[in-house]
Amino acid sequence: MNIILQNLLKLQALEFGEVVAKNVEAQIAELRGKIPPPITGHYDRLRVRGKKGLVFVRHQVCTGCHMHVPIGQITV
Questions:
Q1: How distant is the alpha carbon of residue 14 from its chain centre?
Q2: Total-model pTM
Q3: What is the pLDDT of residues 6-38, one digit of tens each?
């Protein structure tokens, strides 16, 4: 998996309280520094609305909104 996606997943887990860790604020700051600003900007816009910025697609269904995702979009 792409390193940016891995960092974004870690950031999301920390910010949504899915992972309990020490020095959460320091880890969040470190991860935000590793993710390009356009991606964090989009992520923050979704987060303000109470949505997750990154979710898995399983069996062509988005696990965040439960909408069908065409296979052509998934493979891009």
A1: 10
A2: 0.77
A3: 999 999 999 988 888 789 999 999 999 999 999
Which of 42, 36, 57, 47 lies closest to 14 in space, CA to CA? 47
CB 56 within 8 A of CB 43: no
Residue 14 tokens read as 């920390």
The three-class DSSP label of residue 58 is strand
Residue 76: both structure tokens together: 């891009």
How is residue 23 written in tokens? 């020095």
Round to whole Å and give the CA distance between 75 and 59: 13
CA angle 32, 34, 39 (to 5 degrees): 65
Alpha carbon 72 to chain centroid distance?
Answer: 21
Name the 3-class secondary structure at 3.
Answer: helix
